[in-house]
Structure formats: C-alpha cells, structure tokens
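Section 3.1: Structural characterization of target chains.
Under the original work plan, the team committed to producing a structural model for every single-chain target entering the pipeline before any wet-lab resources were allocated. The record below documents one such target. The sequence was received from the expression subgroup and is listed exactly as submitted; it comprises 528 residues.
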Amino acid sequence: METQESGIEQPHRGRVVMLVDNKVEGDSRVQKAAESMAAAGWDVTLLGLVRSGSGRRWKLGDAEVRLLPLKTPLAKRHAERHRSLLRRPLAYPPGPLGAYRRQWAKAWRADVATRRAALQVVPQAVGTPAFRRAERMRLTMAGPASKIMQRWIELRSRQSTEAQKAGRRLQGPMDRVFTATWKAAKGKRAWRRLEPALWDYELTYGKEIDALKPDLIHANDFRMLGVGARAAVRARAAGRQVKLVWDAHEFLPGVRPWEDNAHWIPGNTAHESEYAPFADAVVTVSEGLGDLLRERHSLATQPTVVLNAPDRPVDRQAGGEDDVVPDLRELCGIGPDVPLVVYSGSPGPQRGLGDMVEALPRLDGVHMAFVVPNPAAAYIKGLLARAEELGAGDRLHAVPYVPHWQVVRFLSAANAGCIPIHHWPNHEIALITKFFEYSHARLPLVVSDVKTMSEVTRSTGQGEVCKAEDVSDLVRAIKQVLAEPERYRAAYDKPGLLDTWTWEAQAEVLDALYSNLLPDREKADNRR
C-alpha cells in the first residue's frame, strides 16, 4: 500500500479482509477493529452489506470499507414459493393468480350491475327486444353466480394469506417435523434446507473476498463464519495460505431468535457447528462465552477474549469536525440540573426499555434518554406513545447514535446509565458494550441481576443491581444512584480499573493474535 505523505510503496504486515453482516455504521466493535488493525500496519478491507440500493465505499482511518448489495432470493420460505396443500388446501399458489382472480370477480360483479342498469335506463341501446329478454334471463343467473364466485375467491384468498403467514412463522407441528427430519438426516449440514438464505451471503461476498486475496480473514459472528471458511478453503485449494479468525459475538443457542420460527436456531446453529472447526483462531467477548464455545465446538484452545471496550476518551482531532460532540442534554431540551438517566444501544423488549418507561411516572422530575440507531423506529415510537399514556411523555427522549469515538463524552452528560436487560443466556455471560461506555463516562450504573454484570457492579461498587423485569426494584435502584452519585463515581478512581477497559488495550490483544497466525509475514516485515 502507499502512504500519501511519501508517495512510495510501504511494506504491510499482511492483507486482512474483515466480514460483517451489517452496514458497518453502528457496529462499534467492527469499526474499531478495522481502524485499529489498519493503524497497526495491516492492510485492512472491511466488507459489509446493504439490503437495498447499491453499495458504496469509504475510508475508516487507513482501512477501506466496502458495502455490497445483498440479494436475498433464497430467503423466501417454501410457503412463499410453493402451494401448501396440507397447510391450507384451498389457497392459491404463490404468485399473481390470487390477485388476478379477485380482480376478475370484481369486474364480473361490476359488469352484471352495469348490464342490469342499462336494461332499465337505456333498453334501446342494449339490443333488440328478443336480445333484451335473453339478457334478463342471463342476468337472473349471473347475479347470484357472480356473488357466489366472489365469495369463493375471497375464501381462497384468505386461505392464501393465512398460508403465507404460517409459512413465514414456521411454528406449527409440520414445521417442527420438517426441522427434526432434516436434522436427523443431515446433521450439521441441515442448514442447507432449514436456512438456505445463508447462501445469499456466500454469493454476495465470495467473489469479492477471492479478488482481494487476503492473508487473513476475520469473520464476525455466525453468518460470516461460513462465508469466511469457504473463502479460506478456496484459497488454500488454489495454493495460498490463508488464516481464518472467527469473532463470535454471542452464544448462538442462547440468543432470542431474530426470526421466531422453528428453523432459525436449528439451521443457524448447524451452520455454525459445521464451520467452527475451520477457524484457525476464535475471538470472543468474554471468558464465559469462551468457555461455552470451547465446550460446544470442542475447540483445541481457549478463545481469545477481546472486550467490547470503548476508545480511550481523548480528543480525536482537536479543533476538527470529529471533535464536536453533540450535547445530549440539548438534544433532550433540558438544563444541566435536570436528573437524566440514559440507555444507549440497540432497542428491544428483552433489553428492558419498556420497564424504564413504566418506571418514569414513579420518578418525579427524572428524564430518560434512549440513544438508539433509529429514533423513528416503530418500537421506539411505541415506547414514546406509552410514556404519553402514563403522563410522562415530556420526560422521555429518543436521540440518534453518535460516532463511536464520541460515545463516552456524549453519554457523560447524563447522571446515570441504565442496563435493565432481561434474563436470556447471552445476557448472563458478558460485560456488554454499554457497560464499558457508561464506565468511561463515569456514570453510576443501574443494572439488572444478570450474572456477569451484576457480579462486577457489586464488586466494583460502581452502581446498583435491580431484579430484572421488576419495575418497583428498578425505581428503587435509580433513586438510590441519583441520591448519592459521588459514592458510585468514586469506584472509577481505583487505579487501573478503566485502563484495561479500553479498546486500545483490546487492540493490542487482537494485533498479537494476527501476528501469531502470520509469523512469516512478521519475519518478512522485520527483515525489511
């Protein structure tokens, strides 16, 4: 690669292709990994996706980001492609036929009504007296027949709609039998029948990876694991040595499914199990998750832990545009003395935002800010509407994300950080990103009693623990941290506590892992 300053070619430590199944913006872990590894001398290209429109490119520090347009024809379920005689025998087959038949029936009814009216008001225009007598007889039968036909078509159309919904939900007995049958027949390869949409990612990323000829592929999360593994296999078959790093962000069997159906978890876990052995190294977000992954996939070595820690809160470009951090309180329309509790991160019922809204009426004068990817999303609008119903609409605010390097300073304007997540297996085993962001913002914390976060919070004294899904206990904990904020902030003065919770420290771990996987590259670079 070339440096703009010298204009001469400089050696790089190796070409790294990072893969992620999102649009990169909003995924702070992936952004920081790409930018920091490029700064450390690796030639980094980060491939993400867009689900509509064309792709685009930009620079993230010295790393190049490319978004690829994802086409998803394989995401259509069987019921969206084929008629299901067992599920809804009267349904029309998928496609335009149902809409055509409905419109045809309406046209017939309109024609019958018009012809009847014409016989009454302009009989001479209809035809001869003999023709009019025959027309009356035809209409006597056509009226009831067209009505019966329209009702029959409407019944079949309802069956079609129900079949499509059932086919997308995939929650019925037939779906469970289908899943069990393919799991028994194919084992780890069953995902090809249960989640064929995973091939859409392969067909989107595969050629792009091959053209880049990477020395190392860094696959983020479960979907990209298969894409990365297949690319590494193709490269090795062509005579190139490529290393595969799998960055597991969560324990897949313990997630709340993105699609609540009988195929999603079995299909995606089978895919993960098939390709986990291809990884030369596994990275994950906590020791607890590392233990689970090693046991589940019989890994030879313990996964390397790279925490979801934030950047060290320093000025990025003094005086530049990047240095201008939005004012959280100004966005909420409140002054410096108003108590403000913040939630920052992806929204969802299992994350406890609804509990925070229910708590508002019992927290006099307290405002809450939800820092979320899309403040106009339907779920957020529902929460704002609920706050209005409770008479606290003026004290709940939804504001958008800021760039990851601004997050800590942005959040520091609040009085407390809240993590009221519910008990799901993945919530129990890791310190999540917002935990570290709140900590560097020196916010007193309110966390639910999920295992790892509650244990750390109690041991450091940086906040209070409340019972998950218990609004009364959430109110108690918020009141407590707001009443004695300095008591909890003092925990951050412990020497070394925040130093290890920085991305800079985690980037050193990731850089060392890359170097160990590509020792020949390191030696060649040192000789130069």
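The mean pLDDT is 88.
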